[in-house]
Write a structure and sequence with these properties.
- The chain has 218 residues and is an alpha/beta fold.
- It has one domain: 2-Layer Sandwich (Nucleotidyltransferase, domain 5), CATH 3.30.420.10.
- It is 44% helix and 16% strand.
- The protein is built from 9 helices and 5 strands; from the N terminus they run βββαααβαβααααα.
- It has a 5-stranded mixed beta sheet with strand order 3-2-1-4-5, sandwiched between helices.
- Helix 5 crosses helix 8 and helix 6 crosses helix 7.
- The radius of gyration is 17 Å and the shape is globular.
- It starts with 17 loop residues before the first strand and ends with a helix.
- 37% of the residues are buried.
- The N terminus is likely disordered.
- It binds one DNA strand of 23 nucleotides through strand 1, helix 1, helix 4 and helix 5.
DNA sequence: TGCCAGGCCCTCTTTAGGGCCTT
C-alpha cells in the first residue's frame, strides 16, 4: 500500500513551489536503440505533500523482453491491454504542464520523456533536476546511490514493488524530503527548491563532500 | 576496423579511462 501522504510535512508552505516527479519503466536503456516506455508515473509534489498522482501502463506496440518482465513484473499481456503510448503521453504531459521536473537519474528519464513527447509532436519546455546526482552529494557515505539502496540507507518508507513506476516515483519523493531535512539541519537550507537541486547536482563533489563531512562531525 | 546507451562524475585527468545509474 502506498502511503497517501509523506511523513515530512512542514509547517510553512508559503514559499513552497510545485514540482513534478516522474519515473518510467521501459523495454531497455535507450530510445536510440529502439527501447520504448511501458509505464509512467508522475506526481505533483509540493511542501512535502503528494498533491496529485498520475500512473499508467502504455502500449507502444513493442515487445517486452523477458528480462524486463523479470525486473518489473510488466508483461506483454499487461502492455497489450494498456492505452496507447500516444494517449498516455498526451495525458501525462498535460498533467505535469510546465512544472519543473525531477527524476532519479534524470538523464535516463529525460531521454525517454523527450523521445516519447517527440513521437506525439510535443516538446519539453522545462528543465530536469536529478535526485541521484544530489544524493551523491548529500549521502557520500551511502553504499551506492541506487534508489533502492538509498531507501534502505535513509530508512525511507516502503512504497510498494521496486521497479514499478508508481512505487519508484513515490520513493523519489520520500528521498527528496529526506534530503531536504538533512540539508536543512546541516546547511540552514530553508527549502529544497528545484533551482537549489539544480545547483547542488552540479556542485563539485570534491568541494561539497568535505563540507558535509565537517558539518556532520559537529 | 571495431564497436555499439549516454550523461555525469572522479581521478592514478584534462591529448583519457572507467564507474555509476536508469530499464
Amino acid at each position: 500500500m502506498i502511503p497517501p501522504r509523506l511523513a515530512y510535512e512542514k509547517q510553512t508552505a508559503d514559499s513552497a513551489e510545485s514540482i513534478a516527479i516522474i519515473d518510467f519503466e521501459t523495454t531497455g536503456l535507450s530510445p536510440g536503440e529502439g527501447a520504448r516506455a511501458t509505464e509512467i508515473a508522475a506526481i505533483i509534489f509540493r511542501n512535502g505533500h503528494i498533491e496529485r498522482r498520475y500512473q499508467s501502463l502504455m502500449n507502444a506496440g513493442v515487445y517486452v523482453p523477458a528480462f524486463i518482465t523479470d525486473l518489473t513484473g510488466i508483461t506483454n499481456e499487461m502492455v497489450r491491454r494498456a492505452p496507447s503510448a500516444a494517449r498516455v503521453m498526451q495525458e501525462v504531459a498535460d498533467f505535469v504542464g510546465d512544472l519543473p521536473l525531477v527524476a532519479h537519474n534524470a538523464s535516463f528519464a529525460r531521454k525517454f520523456w523527450d523521445s516519447e513527447l517527440a513521437l506525439i509532436g510535443r516538446k519539453r519546455q522545462q528543465e530536469f533536476a536529478c535526485s541521484m546526482l544530489v544524493a551523491r552529494r548529500v549521502y557520500p557515505t551511502a553504499p551506492n546511490h541506487k534508489l533502492g539502496t538509498l531507501a534502505t540507507f535513509a530508512n525511507l518508507p516502503n512504497t510498494g514493488k521496486a521497479h514499478r513506476a508508481q512505487a519508484d516515483v513515490e520513493m523519489t519523493a520520500h528521498l527528496l524530503c529526506h534530503m531536504e531535512v538533512t540539508l536543512a539541519q546541516r546547511f540552514q537550507i530553508q527549502y529544497l527548491s528545484h533551482a537549489l537541486l539544480r545547483v547542488l547536482q552540479r556542485a563539485k563533489v570534491s568541494d561539497i563532500q568535505p563540507c558535509i563531512k565537517k558539518l556532520l562531525a559537529r
